[in-house]
Q: What sequence folds into this?
């Protein structure tokens, strides 16, 4: 196929769009792949749509290869199924909601677990029907608070979502494993650099879950990886190793000290080290108690939660939000302190919390037998050597302190380093949450019902266009991997001479004849403009038909390396076929 | 490719769905092609999705063949562009509207003229850029008052919509002609029986317009065709031929008669024929004046409109609505008559209407020089021989009387007969409405702006699945045309014998190897169940691997004709390739 730039609906831009911050956004707009229509809403122009369709095709092929069957649901969905699973509420403002002309409630599907579960329930009855895996490539909607970075985080986007239905946990584990391998193949074929990280589950509820994160400094997700193993995890999913418990008997008794003007950890440590207590204190010896309010979806009232953690760590609110989801976290205001006079700001200790029935959860490092400096529930007073398991007993553990580079890896090998990534895939053993909500059972061989267990698996198809652009570009433009490039060869007719144009047309024709997709720059523009556009558009192989043609030579340029080779014109098609087909 | 029914996500149903009235709806559900998710919202199961994708492919190929370029817009669109063209208001309750989390107004796109016009304006500037034709295959949303007939009239559906942009009317006419020919090719390849009818334009505004209607007794659209030519038109678009004008001078003078108890045409005609006036009257000699109210979008108040038409005709409200669109029509209530005492029910005449400033439009048959019996604006009184152009002068012509079988064809050849159809395509010379709304100009060769003129062209892609089913089925099930069938050959293993299954598998493998798509019924079900399912599913060619296999024979059955041929097993693949490839 030949696409002629003289008639292609494409106008490249010299300037970056004003709202663009990340390279993929700038380049996809400048090279004419996408255009902004609304916040988080983009149109796909011809070249962009081609890349998107190529990615869809790779995804479909690998899904079919593991026996997944494609179906397609509406995007406009009735409220009732999402009410049954409480997601109508849990999704909060992220869900686009609307009413039809009769006043019935609808939503624009953010993900389709409910519909798949109901559909399988509608068709299948016997254990003999299972397992089954279904998928769709579907336009999804999420009313993101901050749509950003072009198609990296839009409000309307294309996802592949698949769902497995199994009779037992072993079946689910097998479906999960097959998806994991299919995803590895998909991202491999697309040439994406990625890591697989342990993940928390978001609003979907369930258990085993991994994310595929494309490595990108502009990514929104922070993850950590070990220097000593292949451990990698979302920061939200890092499990802090707990130190060994210690005996409490040999610890000195807790003592309250007058510590004037020490409302911060730093001022407290300074004071203690100047107080002649006979030892050196660090922030890690102090126990900081942070108070927040939790509001559960649908509940009118919020409840207090106190989090105890070593004074050298802050609470990571993303970890906290992930840990308490679907409850929402908010900070205390003055009215809350007035209402709870036992909370003495800067001097809060376990004593008053537990005496007043505030739920008190501590960092995994605060194990039995550890001794802490902490608030004495009285202004300007702290208690030293307050021992966990002797002087206070928390209500449980909450692992939400910030994760730092240099922290020991949870698998015991090496230390953690941080990196940033973009979520491109998510695989997830949902379990029976949705089957329970809809009574999805199979009639077992013994005539008794077997509750089905589900997995859900997503790939951000349209996002991948941006992810690949993010990982594969230089300062002159995009550099598409061959499998997703909008054309195989970009033929640049470098000059206005009719002979050159005829030569370019002839070569383009022969390449198309041989089965390649050719982008032919047959415009009247100057060679400089055409070269710049070719670099910007990013087809991996560029064929320059220029002055050399008079001597029977054309030039083949590799967009990524910049390498140029002169090739006899009669040999050009064979040469290019070798290059393209590797 | 082989699709095995033992694992295919397909369960056929013996019973028609309770809400189904038309054959396509019943059969597509029973054969497991689609499932209802919400009113007017259907999911596509694997076989249905295949048929849909095949139709999409045919449409894309013919669009590319006329140089149309595919792009893709969001379905979730901001209000502003639709506000600029007033369609935010004009669409009324048919538009799905919603707000985002910031309270901004959005809609789900029913059609995308605004976005295409804005996008072309954004990319193109010079007359050298034109003409251009863009298209998309897109999910559209319309909140139909009565979603019905399964996917025939859904609220979420797939359309191909394309838009042409030309510098002048000749260019638009050429773009229109190319689309018309492309549509003829598309529907020809899909094997649809259709007519092309002159159409009115709906809410889109503009001029030349034709609809492609699939002929189907269950269709919602009535159209008429001539017995003497290839004239066909939507009833809304029929132009009633006006008779020749007559001289007014030789007509007898108008005379008011006391016509007691004649509020209906029938009672009036009876009275006149018994009144000894020396001639015979029919309903066609009377002039009936029908009053309605028109409300323009956005206008608070309605205005009165009087329609004068021969007494043997009724007003066709679909024609009236189409003629006055976007104004809405409503009937007068008692309060209206109280407010306008000059309207004497049953005896309304042109005199009082025109004396009181009511807009008065008449049927094309009410030409100058025609004499009528009509109301005298006084109870129990009519006037005879009231002559158009002498005794009253209407404000204009309004062609909204019912069209009847037997009416003369507007092209003068033959008479009209009625038929029913389903709209599958619409081509439309929009003109400059949208270019005017957005100031879409090209800089002309003389440096002056040239206002662009647009065409819009739609094909109901998902609807076509139902249309084809509607036109191509029998009482046992669907019969797909080869180009859209979910498989090329349906291999039925008719028996549980392992040898038969092995034979079926081997033949399916060879057919797939030869490039055919095979649906293989490898289930443990009885031959009777399998045969019934094969008839229901409707793959055009069925290969039965049964008892004959022992003697080296298999049976090839044509789903449409029912014809069966025994074929030596070694010859089966070649035979089937001939059948499938024609």
A:
């Amino acid at each position: 196929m030949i696409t002629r730039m003289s008639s292609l609906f494409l106008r490249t831009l010299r300037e970056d769009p004003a709202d663009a911050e990340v390279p993929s956004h700038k380049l996809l707009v400048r090279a004419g792949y996408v255009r902004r229509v609304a916040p988080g809403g983009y149109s796909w122009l011809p070249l962009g749509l081609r890349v998107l369709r190529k990615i869809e095709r790779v995804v479909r092929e690998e899904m079919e290869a593991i026996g997944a069957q494609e179906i397609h649901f509406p995007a406009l969905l009735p409220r009732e199924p999402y009410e049954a699973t409480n997601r109508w509420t849990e999704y909060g403002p992220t869900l686009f909601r609307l009413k039809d002309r009769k006043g019935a409630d609808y939503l624009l599907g953010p993900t389709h677990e409910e519909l798949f579960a109901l559909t399988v329930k509608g068709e299948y009855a016997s254990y003999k029907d299972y397992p089954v895996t279904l998928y769709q490539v579907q336009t999804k909607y999420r009313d993101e608070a901050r749509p950003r970075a072009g198609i990296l985080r839009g409000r309307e986007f294309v996802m592949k979502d698949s769902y497995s239905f199994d009779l037992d946990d072993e079946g689910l584990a097998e479906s999960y494993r097959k998806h994991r391998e299919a995803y590895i193949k998909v991202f491999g074929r697309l040439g994406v650099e990625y890591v697989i990280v342990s993940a928390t589950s978001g609003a979907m509820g369930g258990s085993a879950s991994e994310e595929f994160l494309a490595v990108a400094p502009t990514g929104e997700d922070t993850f950590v990886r070990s220097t000593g193993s292949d451990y990698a995890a979302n920061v939200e999913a890092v499990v802090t190793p707990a130190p060994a418990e210690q005996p409490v008997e040999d610890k000195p008794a807790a003592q309250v000290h007058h510590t004037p003007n020490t409302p911060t950890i730093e001022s407290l440590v300074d004071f203690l080290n100047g107080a002649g207590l006979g030892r050196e204190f660090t922030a890690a010896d102090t126990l900081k108690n942070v108070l927040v309010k939790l509001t559960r979806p649908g509940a009118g009232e919020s409840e207090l939660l106190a989090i105890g953690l070593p004074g050298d760590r802050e609470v990571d609110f993303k970890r906290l939000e992930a840990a308490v989801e679907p409850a929402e976290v908010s900070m205390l205001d003055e009215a809350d302190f007035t209402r709870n006079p036992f909370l003495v700001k800067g001097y809060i200790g376990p004593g008053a919390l537990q005496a007043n029935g505030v739920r008190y959860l501590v960092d995994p490092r605060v194990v039995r037998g550890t001794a802490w400096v902490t608030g004495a529930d009285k202004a300007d007073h702290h208690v030293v050597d307050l021992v966990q398991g002797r002087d206070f007993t928390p209500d449980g553990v909450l692992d939400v302190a910030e994760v730092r580079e240099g922290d020991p890896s949870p698998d015991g090998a090496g230390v953690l380093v941080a990196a940033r990534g973009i979520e491109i895939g998510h695989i997830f053993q949902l379990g029976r949450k949705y089957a329970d909500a809809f009574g999805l059972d199979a009639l077992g061989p013994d005539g008794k019902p077997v509750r089905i267990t589900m997995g859900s698996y997503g790939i951000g198809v349209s996002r991948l266009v941006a992810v690949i652009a993010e990982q594969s570009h230089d300062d002159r433009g995009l550099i598409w991997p061959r499998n997703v490039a909008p054309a195989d060869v970009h033929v640049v007719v470098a000059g206005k001479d009719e002979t050159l144009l005829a030569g370019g047309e002839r070569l383009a024709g022969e390449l198309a004849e041989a089965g390649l997709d050719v982008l032919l720059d047959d415009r009247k523009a100057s060679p400089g403009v055409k070269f710049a556009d070719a670099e910007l558009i990013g087809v991996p192989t560029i064929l320059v038909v220029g002055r050399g043609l008079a001597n029977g030579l054309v030039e083949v340029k590799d967009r990524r390396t910049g390498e140029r080779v002169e090739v006899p014109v009669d040999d050009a098609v064979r040469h290019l076929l070798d290059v393209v087909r590797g």
About this structure: Residues 487-581 of chain B form a domain with the Rossmann fold fold (CATH 3.40.50.800). Chain B has 15 helices and 32 strands. The radius of gyration of chain B is 30 Å.
